[in-house]
Design a protein that fits this description.
The protein is α/β, with parallel strands linked by helices and 493 residues long. It has 22 helices and 15 strands. The protein has helices at 15-21, 40-45, 48-60, 66-76, 111-114, 117-128, 143-152, 171-178, 194-206, 208-216, 229-248, 268-278, 295-302, 327-334, 339-352, 359-368, 376-390, 396-412, 430-437, 445-456, 462-465, 483-490, and strands spanning 3-5, 30-32, 89-93, 96-100, 133-139, 158-165, 185-191, 219-222, 258-263, 283-290, 304-306, 354-356, 369-373, 418-422, 477-479. The strands form 4 sheets. The protein has a 6-stranded mixed β-sheet with strand order 3-4-14-9-10-13, with helices on both faces. Helix 12 links the parallel strand 9 (258-263) and strand 10 (283-290). Helix 17 crosses helix 19 (430-437). The protein is globular and about 60 Å long. The protein starts with a strand and ends with a helix. It binds pyridoxal-5'-phosphate. Pyridoxal-5'-phosphate binds next to helix 12.
């Protein structure tokens, strides 16, 4: 399997190179040249998450040996997840189920990819045989940082530096990151907001002098960002796995279609579902759920993607985003893999902060995708209602998805069995979830976890149980202009 650039500006490359490179250096994202087809008969015989993962990944990562993949998968999806199914499916009603993607070590769905991606990267580096250590630079608003830290900690020949806005993450997220152990992890708070942090890290990537120093010291920089193919391809697996479970639990008959609903930010999760459909998994509709940052809702309704708008800080912060990077990959497919047309649209976005999709591409988008958004009040009302009616505790992100399913069904009367992906454990956002269930107004995350537990008797995710008693191993806080020198100093540690 070869990979192309969405902007037609790179040579066809194999997966190891693609995973090592991250994104196309001249702009653009790596995409598979074609979609390998699934055999539904064969999928039916696969047992467990690991076998499903091998079946999918071996089709895409064709320059990894079977032996490599088996070993990587066995390490990535086992006791590091707190549920034997890895991604258990919970039936809520006869035609709706929730695929829980938060049983990994950081209680967010990023673990589904970030437990395996570092291992894929290490094998790629090893086959390049240049003896370099990879230094992973991450700017995070919370979830990605911790998931990347857990994924990379103690992984040979890697070192991970994670920068977060000192004032811009929740207390629980801060404790999660700062308590990370491991020989090769560095976590640094930055005085500035997330955008500042991200811009500073990007500047470090682009800093030629710094790169040269790194190379001399035996390091090459890389990113654990969600545009890396190594993060996207593992996400296809759980849609195939989820379909098997939908059938096993009687929500549909083998071969019948399902709809999927996805709380969406950077468009990686829902894109993986679209790829699964292109491979032949019976999925009809993609319900793309947004919070108040509803740029994708507008895009699906009108074809216009316009970033000139206010940015809202919401109770589902992992979806607070204006530029959904992975959308470019869908647009590439909708434009029949025409890199020049994709380039033209993204030039418009760069120059005019907007682009418009028209004609058959827009029709295709609207045939398959339904977009809607949820207000803060509706998010909390949904959490309360679902807990009352089904005794199921949603987190704020998954609640946005649930609400979109309800709206979709009311509007279209399409009752195709629906699978909603749950992207975070509710205890990760305890203040907002508690606020949905009771009138008590708290400001202390840890107290809210206890109260929520007492009120719901829902198990606390093991990662979050004793979090406030964990030793904080990382305490450094720096200003923005110190960031490059922090990176440089790490080269000589
Ligand atoms: C990252 C994240 C999302 C958004 O996923 P995308 O793949 O970026 O669309 C949604 N919910 C949670 C909890 C997340 O951490």
């Amino acid at each position: 399997m070869k990979y192309l650039s969405t902007r037609g500006n790179w040579h066809p490359a194999l997966s190891k190179e693609v995973i090592r490179t991250g994104m196309v250096p001249k702009g653009g994202l790596f995409v598979p040249e074609s979609f390998p087809q699934l055999s539904l008969d064969h999928i039916k015989t696969l047992k467990g998450y690991q076998e499903t993962a091998f079946y999918i990944l071996s089709k895409y990562l064709s320059d990894y040996t079977d032996q490599e993949l088996h070993a990587i998968i066995a390490e990535s999806y086992s006791s590091n997840f707190t549920h034997k199914d890895i991604a258990p499916l919970k039936k809520i009603t006869d035609d709706c189920a929730i695929l829980e993607l938060w049983h990994g070590p950081t209680a967010a769905f990023k673990d589904m990819a970030l437990q395996i991606m570092p291992r894929l990267l290490v094998h790629s580096m090893a086959s390049q045989k240049d003896g370099m250590t990879v230094m992973i630079l991450v700017a995070t608003s919370g979830d990605t940082g911790k998931a990347a830290l857990e994924g990379f900690k103690n992984v040979a020949n890697t070192r991970i530096l994670c920068f977060y806005p000192e004032e811009g993450v929740s207390l629980i997220q801060k404790y999660q990151m700062n308590s990370t152990d491991g020989q090769n992890t560095v976590v640094v708070g930055v005085r500035g907001n997330f955008d500042d942090c991200q811009t500073a890290v990007k500047a470090a990537f682009a800093n030629e002098a710094l790169r040269e120093k790194a190379e001399k010291a035996g390091y090459s920089f890389s990113s654990a960002n969600s545009i890396n193919w190594g993060r996207l391809v593992p996400q296809i697996v759980y849609y195939v796995w989820g379909y098997k479970e939908m059938e096993a639990q009687g929500l549909l008959k083998w071969g019948e279609p399902m709809n999927v609903a996805v709380p969406t930010g950077n468009f990686g999760n829902i894109l993986a579902a679209y790829y699964a459909m292109r491979m032949g998994l019976p999925i009809n509709q993609f319900i793309c759920a947004s919070n108040q940052n509803n740029i994708l809702t507008d895009f699906i309704k009108s074809g216009e993607y316009n970033t000139k708008r206010d940015f809202h800080v919401t109770m589902s912060p992992s979806m607070d985003i204006l530029i959904s990077s992975n959308l470019e990959r869908l647009i590439f497919e909708l434009l029949e893999k025409d890199g020049q047309k994709v380039s033209a649209l993204y030039d418009d976005l760069k120059n005019k902060s907007t682009f418009k999709l028209t004609g058959p591409a827009l029709n295709q988008l609207q045939q398959r995708f339904y977009g809607d958004f949820t207000s803060e009040e509706e998010t909390q009302a949904t959490i309360a209602k679902v807990f009352k009616n089904h005794h199921y505790l949603l987190d704020t992100h998954t609640a946005v998805g649930y609400h979109a399913v309800e709206k979709y069904r009311a509007q279209t009367k399409d009752l195709t069995p629906c699978m909603l992906t749950a992207t975070a454990n509710p205890y990760k956002f305890p203040l907002a979830v508690l606020g949905a269930l009771s009138d008590e107004k708290l400001t202390d995350d840890f107290l809210a976890v206890e109260k929520l537990h007492a009120l719901s008797s829902e198990n606390i995710h093991p990662q979050l149980v004793d979090i406030k008693d964990k030793a904080l191993l990382h305490k450094r806080v720096v200003s923005l202009d110190e960031l490059a020198s922090v990176i440089e100093n790490e080269l000589y540690c």
